[in-house]
Amino acid sequence: MVSDSPQENPAAAWWSLAAIILCIAVATFAVWRILGTPLFGCDDANIFFIYARNFAHGNGIVYNAGGQHVEGFSSILYFLCCSAAYLVSARPELALFWLNVLFCIATNLVLAFVIRRFAAICQLSRIQTVLLGLAYLLWLAINPAYFAWNIVSLMDVGLYTLAITLNYAFLATLLLRDTIPALREALQLSALAILLLLTRPEGIAWALVAITIFAVVAWLRLASFSGALRAAAVPLLAVDAAVEIFRLKYFGYLLPNTFYAKVSASLPQTFHDGSRYLLGFIRLYGIVSIAPVMLGIGGVVYVLYRNEHTDNAFPVVTLTLLFAAVGLAFPVLEGGDHFRDFRMYQSIYPILGFLFLLPAMYFLRLKEWTNAAIYSAAMLIFAIFTWNGSWTRFSQHNQLQGLTNTQMRVRVEFLIASQGRRRGNRLNQLFPTHSPSIGVFEAGGNAYAYNGVTYDLMGLNDPRMAHADKIKTGPKGHQSFNKDVFYSLAPDILLPETVLPTYAIHLNTVDTFYRDPDGFENQAFKNIFADPQFRAAYSLVAMRNIAVPAFVCYGYFRNTYLTALTATGQYVVVDRLPTPLPAA
Question: Of 54, 234, 270, 398, whose CB has the highest number of CB atoms within 10 Å?
């Protein structure tokens, strides 16, 4: 074992920074182009922007200005980052894009630092260390979804990835030293654990895992297990208690509204959904997703068999394997999510890649040159084939032309946001003085642009919907719609759409689409479109504003609102389905 940390080579650090920036810049630009050059984030990122703008403008943490307090976002810390951006700019998307780039650079700088420290412990040469760093960047570059979700989406994924990585890197560098964990190290880890807590709701579980590992390390090095645990956990639990008290007093609930809207109270269903999510990740990514863990397990068994784990490198292998396993398991326990390209697994993707490097480091440390060469050649061939396959697949499934199943494409998340913003701006023009309340399916871009009241009928931003049903049914992530709550809200227009006047609107086709028993929208709305009560209260109408001939609005108009609107003489019904609507 070594008694001190190896000294950092400043030149190596600068070259590492340059290589990381180049890799991230090229890959991000390519992904940005494939996704249609968006600079406004995906639809859920626009939900962050809604809350941040309202908060920055003094309206509180609300979805609708003047509405109830609601925590409809997944990260307190990223919400604060977005709010800060709105204090300096009315259009801060570009600033948030660069902030996510910085998060990504910081994440990979931290891991590059761990690689260099690990290589120094293994007494590898400078060229061997450089090759290991390049191998890691190759691993990063073969996965375009990593850059899509961590950077281009403008969501909280990049911050979450950084928080997990910082906790891993702290523990890894601690293991690479002979230091007996003391109060200083406990407080440092506690600060990093608090970062996890504030970044995502499930961060508290990650934080407890990290602190438990820290306490075990203290115990193995003849320090106090309980003392280390208390020193690291007490500040974390104090902050967690403060956050929960704030939530309870400000929002009225102990957990974010997104939890109540998305997580079913049925544990078997949640586990079933999460298992399918993991299996889908393995099917899509194939050996890329599971091979690192298998290598890690095999490496641990091999080293134990050889009985050569006498230095500080071996515990880091175990730590890396544990972080990878926990990262794969958590989404299973949470039920996964509905986003494509496995957003929830992109945060541990860098650590999975680190497992690929460990066998090479081990062979090089023992000067087993033949084994090292064979392993490195195999990994290079594997990376080349994987690179081509992953980028080809990502590009093909994000080309929307001629494809019907757009639900399966990441690019649709950005398309929804852009179309929603356009729809919201058009509604502002069509209803400048009679702003209707609207009920929507996608709650980001539309509500971001629209000046009137927006009801998120999927419940993410509406506690009434989120809490209406304890056991939720329906499409994953869209299970919270409740008919009774809908009738109590009574939005003036349900699912408004705006089109050019030259567009041929076929209301019968629209109605048939929404009432399709197998349709995604109809399942999410619990077949309300065929309800006699709904059909008596709402009419599918195409409407235009005489003063704004550029657009036509169609949707399900509440009959009482429709009567009041036409009575003004400013609005004309272009087309209307018979009332009551025809039976399904």
Answer: 398
Residue 308 CB neighbours (<10 A): 14
Token readout for 8 is: 């950092």
Q: Tell me, yes or no, whether 290 lies in a domain.
A: no
> Is residue 171's pLDDT more than 90?
yes
* Cross-strand bridge partners of residue 573: 543
CA–CA gap between residue 266 and residue 286 (Å, rounded): 30
- Indicate the burial class of 140 (C-beta count within 10 angstroms; 0-12, 13-18, 19 or more): buried
The string of pLDDT tens digits covering residues 433-453 is 878 999 999 999 999 999 999
Residue 48, both tokens? 């962050």
Is 571 among the domain residues? yes
DSSP for residue 501: T
Q: pLDDT digit string (tens) for 88-127?
A: 988 899 999 999 999 999 999 999 999 888 888 878 888 8
Please report whether residue 416 resides in a domain.
Answer: yes
* Distance in angstroms (rounded) separating the CA atoms of residues 442 and 283: 28
Is residue 434 within 8 A of residue 451, CB to CB? The reply is no
Structural domain contains residue 388: no
CA–CA distance, 48 with 83 (Å, rounded to integer) = 9
Alpha carbon distances (Å) from 579 to 208, 531, 532, 533, 540? 58, 13, 11, 12, 9
Q: pLDDT digits over 54-97, tens only?
A: 999 999 999 999 999 999 999 999 999 999 999 998 889 999 99
pTM of the model: 0.90
What residues make up the domain containing 555? 408-576
Contact 542, 557 (CB under 8 A): no
pLDDT at 288 over 60: no
Indicate whether 404 pLDDT > 50: no
- H-helix or E-strand spanning residue 104: helix 93-121
Q: Rounded CA gap, 393 and 380, in Å?
A: 20
Q: How many domains, in total, are found in the chain?
A: 1
CB 82 within 8 A of CB 47: no
